[in-house]
Amino acid sequence: MTVKFGLLGAGRIGKVHAKAITGDAQAQLVAVADAFPAAAQAIAAQYGCDIRSIEAIETATDIDAVVICTPTDTHADLIERFVKAGKAVFCEKPIDLSLARVKSCLDVVRAHKGTLMVGFNRRFDPHFKAVRAEIDKGTIGDVEMVVIVSRDPGAPPIDYIGRSGGIFRDMTIHDFDMARFLLGEEVTEVAATAAVLVDPAIGAAGDFDSVQVMLKTASGKQAMISNSRRATYGYDQRIEIHGSLGAVSAENQRPVSIEVASAAGYTRPPLHDFFMTRYTEAYAAEIASFIAALSGKGTASPSGEDGLIALALADAAVKSVAEKRTVLLSEIL
Amino acid sequence: MTVKFGLLGAGRIGKVHAKAITGDAQAQLVAVADAFPAAAQAIAAQYGCDIRSIEAIETATDIDAVVICTPTDTHADLIERFVKAGKAVFCEKPIDLSLARVKSCLDVVRAHKGTLMVGFNRRFDPHFKAVRAEIDKGTIGDVEMVVIVSRDPGAPPIDYIGRSGGIFRDMTIHDFDMARFLLGEEVTEVAATAAVLVDPAIGAAGDFDSVQVMLKTASGKQAMISNSRRATYGYDQRIEIHGSLGAVSAENQRPVSIEVASAAGYTRPPLHDFFMTRYTEAYAAEIASFIAALSGKGTASPSGEDGLIALALADAAVKSVAEKRTVLLSEIL
Amino acid sequence: MTVKFGLLGAGRIGKVHAKAITGDAQAQLVAVADAFPAAAQAIAAQYGCDIRSIEAIETATDIDAVVICTPTDTHADLIERFVKAGKAVFCEKPIDLSLARVKSCLDVVRAHKGTLMVGFNRRFDPHFKAVRAEIDKGTIGDVEMVVIVSRDPGAPPIDYIGRSGGIFRDMTIHDFDMARFLLGEEVTEVAATAAVLVDPAIGAAGDFDSVQVMLKTASGKQAMISNSRRATYGYDQRIEIHGSLGAVSAENQRPVSIEVASAAGYTRPPLHDFFMTRYTEAYAAEIASFIAALSGKGTASPSGEDGLIALALADAAVKSVAEKRTVLLSEIL
Amino acid sequence: MTVKFGLLGAGRIGKVHAKAITGDAQAQLVAVADAFPAAAQAIAAQYGCDIRSIEAIETATDIDAVVICTPTDTHADLIERFVKAGKAVFCEKPIDLSLARVKSCLDVVRAHKGTLMVGFNRRFDPHFKAVRAEIDKGTIGDVEMVVIVSRDPGAPPIDYIGRSGGIFRDMTIHDFDMARFLLGEEVTEVAATAAVLVDPAIGAAGDFDSVQVMLKTASGKQAMISNSRRATYGYDQRIEIHGSLGAVSAENQRPVSIEVASAAGYTRPPLHDFFMTRYTEAYAAEIASFIAALSGKGTASPSGEDGLIALALADAAVKSVAEKRTVLLSEIL
């Protein structure tokens, strides 16, 4: 069986998904839609697919599934429209920046027994997957404590900051999802610290650029997250998980692994400096997993519910910073 | 000038300090005192020093300084007695488990213009010192965020747990001091999470074995600490400091640095499994620093005040766990 | 300009090159030829190209270049035929196992002013390329000594051993080329040691499985190579270059970079266990470089001459083992 | 039992051994002798031992053993004198630069059933010892191939070069001993390459500064050595041993193990830059092993025979370079 795709949004991430779809023997890219004709044309020309309107894709009988990479504020509406149209939906995170809107959207998905997968791509990184596989094999025993250090090479443009929902919903949300993926038990408590250390303009936009979060589950499992919008040495993405029998960690990735020795010491090159090169394999594996699920192998995961909980953890962190106290997830969800 | 020492306490840590004193060309070990004659005799025999009572050392005219390694509940009293007797004092941490008692002790030290150095040995570890030196050189710019992972190979005996003051005052206190040493600005806010994951008997004794702490300074600098009483792979002691221009970190230490490659992968041996082998160099450098200060080179540091603040941070963490909220240091001190 | 390709040989390595050609926007795969129809059909089906005979490709007007991945004993003949037919030729190494045959083939290439590139893929590995780039930048000053450790996960089938030309011509030849690539000066002297330690059947087939080589240039630059047909931990491929100002090295590559810590120590997974996964990027970059050269960007390199010299070094090593002496390259070439 | 020592030679290495002897509870430093009174006085003052003449130590009844750290050209004579005097002898390497002289000296030792240990300190380095322990445990199966990279931070003074016996007898000799220690089978063949790349003055003094050696045993086990008198990044001393089941390696040692990350990449400090700090633990363990042997625990090893064979391998390397051929050890010994 071949899954026939419509691609909604032909921007940077749309191109990544177009490549993943066309490179998968089980899938076919039938059509692309974008408000900017040039963007859609570039993909259509490279991969030989149609350019259609969103409406045309919605009603198309030759399309089984859509990948939504349009702006965030259109996600929930598009999910609802395409689920109602009987298409399987892969949507870039987040579903929406409002928890209430995410909930109502998921209600629609459930009512229509729709298939919805959310783009937490890091779960598909081969190194993080291998970490999870070790946990599943029991190598480290019962998971007890997680440490996540996640630092971006640089801050996004200030105008993006303004509509991003803030660092917890925009950046930490990946780490919230990763913590859940690794802890294996739902988080019940959130405490967070936040400051503006990188760029005062970020503070002026109402956001933070340097944050810390502590998470705790009902049985006492714990996770720590350290986030910054600045890392001069590249895209710093490390996780370590400690269990009753040992620990497992994933190191940073760099484009070349050479080392220069001189009187100044031993120097290795910086890390990847861009999420798209850092997570190249993850993006391809994510779409392959969606295609596999639609072909009956496994379920589409992470789900809309995973998107909801990660956003709720972000909301809890925002509240924790504002009220200087530990926030229970039950206060939010 | 040679500094003449009396050693109070001839136990495990007393032996370490005896070796450091006798190995230092600027110092002489004159006498040792211990409630257990056999312990004192062992040191006297090995290094050719006197065995004397604490009272005799207190009044001795041939002794300039004392090193206090007696049980914790005697520290504050002994500091006061020896400061009054005009001796310079090096005291193992903590000064006392009660913040009020530490304050009154430091009042006495100040009133007598006494010299008091507190045994936060990790500041003298060559690797952590090198980290601090990079910060001082400006290599990483302004310090922004600190991440400390500190895990013991195993929990101490339950009867020790009961009189330890709890994990924050017994174990995390080293990390509180290290965070202050590295942040370069006083901590103003503390939030902590705690659980019993390693051994229910620790919980039954009223303590935790797995904790996390977030610290924040007035200007927004932040530190995270992850502590556990369990690490099957040895004594896990890592720090990383992120600044405006880069980061500097100190890796774990292991007794041998070989690697075995086989079909099972690449394996390096476990870490040091005991704090005394892990911190051998730090213990010697700490006493050397005290001797140097008494010889007029530098000041005796870390000070009693450093001991006080680290304990106050521990008290704040205890309160944060109990009240599920961020605690201001100003509530404690 | 688009370079139009014919692919000769649709086996394992042919598939790798087919993928590289079709993934390159500057190239088009027009036709494939293989003695086994099924192999050719698989590639034709996947990439939508023709199946043609070698003769038809030779005379085709819609084909600019060929990639030769047929059995070794056909290489020299095919190079001559396609150069005469005016096609640019990329040929898998080796051109031939006989130095005389390689020379006569290169005479034909020269006579027809043909373009010939030889598949020493390792020059295109991003890590080895980065090593070379550091040398070119002058980071390590004048190159003085090279150390190459190159060990295969396992020996090839015995029947392959028999027609491989022996380990120096089959396996070490890659390291000879790498040594030349890094030394930046022609090798003039070769000394080698050889033994059968892995499998007596290899000895029975007249070959060795464990060899060492020392190379020297006229000015005294030196290189060492250590080769084995056995490496339980994966595909071991390391190089280090020492110069007057420092050194640069390339480490091994592994599919996942996680680490498990337990009472047994710290373990990372084995290396890649197959040259095709180890050198995935190198194979793609090699063809891209050939395409670029045909499009006027740079020259096709490594050249036939590079293939000739690497083979001569292998012949010298064989002679050195037989005669237990240093062999001058001038005795061979 | 306490072993009573005389120390012959109070120079740099004499001081290292004096510290090791006085720090060992099973040993006592009774007397020191040196042609320079000031040198002997420094040791006598620090450790409270006598200053005596070599003759007085020779005839002393309160001395069991001597440590010889006088200039190389006195070693063989002193060994003979003290063995005849019934003292156990530890002698710094080499016994002599002349193979004939070493042989006649060992004849005297044998004739008097003397105890002679030679100072190949690297066998006692904890990391190299751990490598050997893995081999002995069978972790890597049968040893097949050894790779040793050994580079000095800088060349010794030219006047030392002149009397050193040349790089093979002065520097590579350590690696010859290490290769024998690790191969577990006697070397039968030696091939070497040599050049002057670091300093023409070394060539003018009749020596080389950059050399390579290949060794082979009767059963085909092999070792490679790469040596240089230059390493800008510190004292480069690495070994790796490959066996039928896997490999084991020892990494370089550095004084501090921190890492700085910045836009320029990840930098660790240089290695130790001096053999005495690099091999601090090895020097102490070496003397402890000698003391233990004299106390009936184990035998004094490495022996005079080990010194002889290492020198013979150096002579073979010299001959190999001169004659451009593989030299059999049986031609030398």
What would you note in describing this structure?
The structure is a homotetramer of 333-residue chains. Chain A is of the alpha/beta class and 333 residues long. The first copy, chain A, has 2 domains: 3-114, NAD(P)-binding Rossmann-like Domain (Rossmann fold), CATH 3.40.50; 123-283 and 299-331, Dihydrodipicolinate Reductase, domain 2, CATH 3.30.360. In chain A, 39% of the residues lie in helices and 26% in strands. Chain A is built from 12 helices and 15 strands. The first copy, chain A, has helices at 12-22, 37-47, 54-59, 75-84, 99-111, 126-137, 158-163, 167-183, 200-204, 275-278, 280-294, 304-323; strands spanning 3-8, 27-33, 50-51, 65-68, 88-92, 116-119, 143-151, 187-195, 210-217, 222-228, 236-243, 246-250, 258-262, 265-268, 327-328. Chain A has a 7-stranded mixed beta sheet with strand order 12-11-7-10-9-8-15. In chain A, helix 1 (12-22) links the parallel strand 1 and strand 2. The model of chain A has no long low-confidence stretch (mean pLDDT 96). Chains in contact: A-B, A-C, A-D, B-C, B-D, C-D. At the A-B interface, strand 7, strand 8, strand 9 and strand 10 of A face strand 7, strand 8, strand 9 and strand 10 of B.
Summarize this entry quickly.
The structure is a homotetramer of 333-residue chains. Chain A has 333 residues and is α/β, with parallel strands linked by helices.
